[in-house]
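Justification of resources, computational component.

The compute hours requested in this renewal are based largely on the per-chain cost of generating structure records like the one below. Each record pairs the submitted sequence with a full structure-token output. That output is archived, and it is also reused by downstream analysis tasks.
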Amino acid sequence: METQNKTRGVAQIILHAVGIVRYGKHKLACFLKGSRSKEIIPKMQENVFGGLLWHTIPAIEGFIEQLEAMGFIERKEQQGCHHSFSVYALTDAGRKVMNEKIQIPVQEIKRENPITVGDSERRTLELFRQGNSATDIAKIRNLAEST
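The structure output for this chain reads:
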């Protein structure tokens, strides 16, 4: 229930932001988080700047992805100086949801970075399994004991 309360109104905040700024996913997430990036500061007067301050950038990006998958926002190609890039825009469904203040549930998706184990870690584990202490392993591998 607590997670539901934390995400209540998130969709409305994102849809409102998409309606006033032309950003891609990461820059939009930074805007909603309240980033002080020089590229984002000019938009600070908008009332959604920092509207999702209590969420992390990856969580906000997850919310944006969910709204895109549901068809409330879509990517549009925007021409830049030297190349084009995609920005988010409201779809008709997104405008309807925003105008009628319909609550769209989104969920915070916990993304865990996979743990990678390299040769160095495997060698240390092998020495540990052979019964060596941390001090012994450090000496054998020519490492600081704190490592």
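The CA atoms of residues 5 and 65 lie 20 Å apart. The chain has a mean pLDDT of 83.
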